[in-house]
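INTERNAL AUDIT FORM
Audit reference: QA-55
Scope: verify that the stored structure record matches its stored sequence.
Auditor: D.O.
Record contents follow.
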Amino acid sequence: QKFRFIQIFLSFSVEGLEGWIKLQTPIFVSSIMFLKEIGGGMFVFMYSAYFFANAGVTWDPFTCTVLVGFTRLIFTFVVALLIDKIGRRPLLITSALVCSSSMFVIGAIIDAENTNLSWIPLVAALIFIASYGLGVGPVPWILIGEMLPTPIRSV
């Protein structure tokens, strides 16, 4: 019973094109989930107070953390309204591009150590949170439910 998922996954034969097509979807979904996890979202969510304190943001770090939570909540409702109208692929691609751009801006500003631009890490982090909530966060979980075969989903 413990290794049922592994047994089901290995039951797909890898012989020929048909076997590759059976393995292609789980590999694709696993890759998206892996990229989602290493994308920096959990760092921003879990360590936001430390991040804002060390980034030189002039506001109170805990106030900034509340803004992060509020932004995350708002965009959870927004994505629920938009995901079927816009589609999963455009949301995921656009969200990934905006997330990477905002992380680049955060890194560049922190590396520059310019105290006159202390508000930019906060704005870039909020843009990251909003974009993460619109695509990179929820879409991979939806893809698991839609793309994997029923025996794998039921495990």
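Auditor finding: record pair retrieved intact. The first helix runs from residue 4 to 11.
Action required: none
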